[in-house]
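Q: Hi! First time doing this. I have a protein sequence and I read that you can turn it into a structure. Is that right? Here it is:
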Amino acid sequence: PSYAWTASPQGDLLACSELGSTYTVNDAQSLQQIAEYNNRITSVTPKIFSNDGELLLLTGYEFNPKTSSGHQLYIWNFRSKQKPIIVPHDGGYLSFAFSPDSTCVVAVDERLTNDSKKPFTLGIWNTSTGERLKTISTGHQSKIQGLDWSADGSQIATASMDGTIRLTSVE
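A: Yes, that's right. Below is the predicted 3D structure, encoded as structure tokens:
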């Protein structure tokens, strides 16, 4: 049985996560399986497809005693049948979005300190390599609830629990 799922932007694919550590991509009409990955270590949840429907972003948790954390992003090119690229992180991930051209993914970094004066930041990663390209300060002092890229990919809009919406330049 599936416990989490998400649909592609075109509505033709469904990503499903089963209890345990198996996740699949299925044709939305026939439910025929297109790809499957079994991660024997941790439970992973599908979050979003890229705009072109070729990549799937998943989140998971595998405790790392060195960092006392284990939140990870998985960027999966499911059509290649290869293992996902794992993007480890010391904190957690709160919101995510693919860039319009699907070459980058942005995620809100969970604040890693109790210092309320430190604003929340965004991390941007290359979807082909998993390399962190940059960290951007948003200026938000409260938790960011949502984000998205501008259509031209030059800015990221963020909405915070403090009731503000901010546009942050990617450049």
